[in-house]
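Deviations from the work plan: none for this task. Representative record:
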Amino acid sequence: MATPLTDFTPTKTGLSYQSQTRHTLVTRLTRILFSGYALLFYLFLFSPIVLLVLFSFNQSRFPTHWTGFTFDWYKTLFANYAIGQALKNSLIVTLTSTAIATVIGTMVAVAMERYRFRAKTAVDGALFLPIIIPDIAMAIMLLAFFVLVGMQLGLTTIIIAHVAFNISFVAVIVRARMASIDPNLAEAAHDLYANEWQEFWRVTFPQLIPGILAGALFAFILSFDDYVISFFTSGPGSTTLPIRIYGMVRRGITPQINAVSSLMLLASFILVPLTLWLQRKGGRN
Amino acid sequence: MMKRSSKFVIVVTMILIGLFAVGCASDDDGGDSDAEQTLNLFNWSEYVDPELLVKFEEETGIKVVEDTFGSNEDLLGKLQGGATGYDVIVPSDYMVAIMIEEGLLAELDHSQLTTLDDLDPAWTDPPFDPGLGHCMPYFWGTTGIGFNWNDWDEAPDSWSYIFDPELAAEFEGQISFLDDMRETIGAALIYLGYSLNTTDEAELNEAKELILAVKPYLSSFDSDNFDDSLLTGETKLVMGWSGDVFTAQVEDENIDYIIPTEGAAKWMDNLCITADAATDPDRLANAHKFLDFMNRPDIAAQNTNFVWYGSPNKSAEEMINPEILSYPAIYPDEETFAKLEWFENVGDSTQLYSRIWTEISTE
């Protein structure tokens, strides 16, 4: 575009030359300012994370001054039965609730976008409730509900609670994807004698994959680090990792907590690119 | 054709995740079958020697499942909400009083407890639980002053170092008070020679004026990180709980804790049986066994040697690490011990305390 533009722009006057340099100067200045700002922003965002990881290798029990390098905290962490148990509980809760919520959430999204039914607006509104309601209100509600129906609190109740709030997030994300799909494709499939089932699996679902993955990832993260709702719906023997960590923090922050957090970070560093890759793969089709 | 393969990948992953989770979950169900008895302990984090839980299982065949909470208020909220299944919980003194009132605790059957006589008589009739009707004392401690020996030749053994404006001025900006209404007002009351449970408005106003007079010299009101800031040297004198200062001491031996000669507040964490456990005779009996076990002198001693808090068990003392026993900050001499006071429920005066605390915080 640059070359044809110069052809039509009169360059004989100094004024236009000047304005051009001023223009590039402003551009350059803005660029410096913006990149500087972005740099500061990322520094602000990431320096605590870097410090956190760094201090997980610190010999001192206190995360305030550096006394030497050690792997001890990771060793005590792996030897800590309670943390292992909490991690196991967290994984069970997170994986199960993510899987269930992703399936239901996707079904809800498809139904909401594709079909007309009575009370659709009401369902639409209700879908947003778990997103809008404060965690603590939801936690108390669920606890009261479980007690009312006489369910023993434990992993099952945490999973149900997590599914309850995760469905909404998955549905909202998948629905956004669903809305961007050309409905003519589905119609074309039907014209070619595909039944609803075939059309869904061969035409709609593949196009939904990036949305479903994004929704699942979101649900996974929300579920994995949820504290408030988990605490109130947990029962004996179902302490999850965030509950355990919170309890440990209240008794003083040790590098063991840094070590757990670093490992969780590592997990997300693996998980996020994996999802992005899968998404791109799905999106290409 | 990528379409089909990625669809396949996702479906298979979902199924595997589901199977894995179900597998793990059913593992647990298998472990909790009726054949094996379990006791559910709801405790503060790192507040019991894990070896003791194993030992209890070896001796009684009852498996202890431990879960943790972060504050007395969390514990109360959970039980009030109707959470069931917990057998033994560990509330602090004032919370015991609230829980008894709310009907959340079972009454102890003293005939099932063989180790009550091992307790120091000083702990057998606390105001929050007269006659130990509901709880077994577990660990106790005090609220005093944390300091660094680098700054002192003699220990700052008086509240005047942080409440006398002239003395406090020496450490301007390096003193912290607890961000806790009863603790901070209580310490000021003790310094003034009053009871920390006073309901006299004039005495409370005097305490307020005192705190406001030294407020300019404070770095902060801090209940969570005062041990850290003492360690880094950010603060030189802190009002704090004994146990927290000791964790800082592990890191720097120059850090120490002292109970001021004027007296101090004492606190007690207790093993209590939930009212829910009392609905099942087996659970109730097992919980009694657990309380009795934890208070057995050899067990209580081992626990204290692990957690480094004072044990209310008198008979345990001969087995407690001499280093702990001879340390006046955990086991003060009789004279100081006599001046320790419980926080008691001040009833309607709570509002007066709140108002004063608001005035202190906002002025």
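Confidence is low (pLDDT under 50) at residues 1-12 of chain A.
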